[in-house]
Design brief:
Helix content: over 70%
Low-confidence stretches: none
Organism: Methanospirillum lacunae
Subcellular location: Cell membrane
Mean pLDDT: 89
GO molecular function, one term: oxidoreductase activity
Radius of gyration: 22 Å
Structural class: mainly alpha
Largest sheet: none
Order of helices and strands: HHHHHHHHHHHHHHHHHHHHH
Transmembrane segments: 6-22, 29-49, 69-94, 106-124, 130-148, 160-182, 202-221, 242-263, 275-295, 315-335, 375-397, 409-433, 453-474
InterPro entries: ComplexI-like_HydComp (IPR052175), ND/Mrp_TM (IPR001750)
Shape: globular
């Protein structure tokens, strides 16, 4: 039964792609995109509701456990919101002449394919399949980044492909090492996640260290970890805002997912302290570079993009700490960050439509903000309050929990992290105060952009969801998250 439900993912995707390929109406293509995303979300919820059927099972096509179901739930929510938002947003791009009507089919086909390969990456039963589908997320993401076909977007897309795909070659070497490790141990090579997890304690520690280091390089690039982060600000800032939300809210999680899986495998072995130190160092380095970079940003989407890098560094720090409690809050932080960050990019998209600069390479000149776009202004401020980890929002809980765990290793870690959080908060609110104080010059006030209801609904929903996540845990949520930690391979109580 579980396999039949899981097979709905490729079946629905095939039907949607076929219908989108023959449609000529933009509205029909966008509606099919919404149906595809919503169907993916519904299938995920169905799988979550039948734990007795998949719990601990490794199927030939899908590995289904608590961890990938949580991330697929988040992915389904983000893609559904983005597809609804795109109904109004993409229509505005077409009317403004920024997106050719001939590119609409490419956009919606690319969007559907990106959702599918992301789904298959999370459910991949072995490392090789995971690597392939993770690489495909880069290909289809880059296609969507460059869809506007202007020089800045094409450059950002090429940089994205070059950095991530080159780095992923190192991960491929790591995959080869993992295969050889298991072959030496069992006599027959295997790349199944669960087989590697079971055999890792008795494998050669030196070769495992090399394999994990190579694997980390590729997926660090996918996650925007310093120094392999250079593609992220460009790609997220130049992409259409519906795409930026998906990249930050869903695709970055693919990289962190891969690192978390490998960290769980390493946790079973004697090299765990060395890998943990590596993750902590790169986590703190990533947070530091991102927070200091945020201080000098003048563009709203680049500011949000560097905030994503900061949060990826924090997730890496939590993974490096390696305790069950740290992993629990790491997964929770991934959920909260995805929801809040997607809402921020949606709000930024509305402001971009209002204030778009017609001079290539220049930032939007925001003025008379609360008079022209009060909805987007309020939503952006609330989202900013949420992303810095203010109480009643989910990132407060995860930051608090992870910092407490980091203090058990060294008091310097939470102290430095708090200073970096303060820098990030200062950067965001310096930007907000700056745009709030600006007025348009007389005679240069732009016409008010009438925001379609399609673009408002996802913003309101995600903000409401973030508040709900921050103040309540639904029955069974804590147990499900705890089981996800166990699925990674991190034992002990939470």
């Amino acid at each position: 039964m579980t396999l039949l439900v899981a097979l709905l993912y490729p079946a629905v995707t095939a039907i949607i792609l076929l219908l989108q390929a023959v449609q000529k109406s933009h509205r029909q293509m966008s509606l099919l995109g919404v149906i595809h995303s919503a169907a993916t979300l519904i299938i995920t919820i169905l799988l979550m509701a039948m734990p007795d059927a998949w719990n601990g099972a490794l199927l030939s096509l899908f590995m289904i456990d608590h961890l990938n179901l949580i991330l697929m739930l988040v992915t389904g929510v983000i893609f559904t919101c983005a597809s609804i938002y795109a109904v109004g947003y993409i229509d505005g791009l077409v009317k403004a002449g920024e997106l050719s009507r001939r590119s609409l089919r490419i956009f919606y086909l690319g969007f559907s394919l990106l959702l599918f390969v992301t789904t298959m990456a999370f459910y991949a039963p072995n490392v090789a399949q995971f690597w392939i589908f993770a690489e495909l997320t880069t290909v289809f993401s880059a296609l969507l980044v460059s869809i506007l076909a202007v020089k800045e977007n094409i450059d950002a897309s090429l940089k994205y492909i070059f950095v991530c795909s080159t780095s992923m070659l190192f991960s491929f070497i790591g995959v080869i090492f993992l295969f050889e490790l298991i072959r030496q141990k069992t006599g027959t090579g295997s790349l199944d996640w669960q087989t590697i997890l079971a055999e890792a304690p008795s494998c050669n520690s030196g070769m495992l260290m090399i394999a994990c280091t190579f694997f980390f390089i590729g997926f660090a690039a996918k996650s925007g970890v310093v120094p392999l982060h250079t593609w992220l600000p460009e790609a997220h800032a130049k992409a259409p805002s519906a795409v930026s939300a998906v990249l930050s809210g869903a695709i970055l999680n693919v990289g962190i997912y891969g690192i978390a899986r490998i960290a769980g495998i390493v946790h079973q072995t004697s090299i765990a302290p060395r890998i943990s130190l590596l993750l902590i160092i790169f986590g703190m380095l990533t947070m530091s570079v991102a927070c200091f970079s945020m201080l000098r940003q003048t563009g709203i989407k680049r500011l949000i993009a560097f905030s994503s890098i900061e949060n990826m560094g924090f997730l890496l720090l939590a993974t490096g700490i390696g305790t069950p409690v740290a992993f629990f809050w790491m997964i929770y932080h991934m959920m909260g960050h995805s929801v809040v960050k997607a809402g921020l990019f949606f709000s930024a998209g509305i402001l971009h439509r209002q204030y778009k600069s017609h001079t290539p390479g220049t930032e939007d000149q925001i003025g008379d903000l609360f008079r022209l776009q009060p909805f987007a202004a309020v939503a952006f401020i609330i989202g900013s309050v949420a992303i810095i980890g203010t109480p009643i929002f989910p990132l407060f809980l995860s930051k608090f929990g992870i910092l407490l765990e980091s203090g058990k290793l060294s008091l310097y870690i939470p102290l430095l992290a708090l200073l970096l959080f303060a820098l990030a908060g200062a950067a965001i609110f310096r930007f907000i105060l700056d745009i709030m104080g600006k007025t348009c010059a007389e005679g240069e006030v732009p016409l008010q952009y009438i925001v379609p209801i399609w673009m408002k609904v996802p913003v309101v929903f995600l903000l409401a969801l973030s508040v709900f996540m921050g103040v309540l845990m639904i029955p069974g949520e804590e147990a499900f998250l705890s089981a996800a930690v166990h699925d990674i391979g991190i034992g002990g109580g939470i």
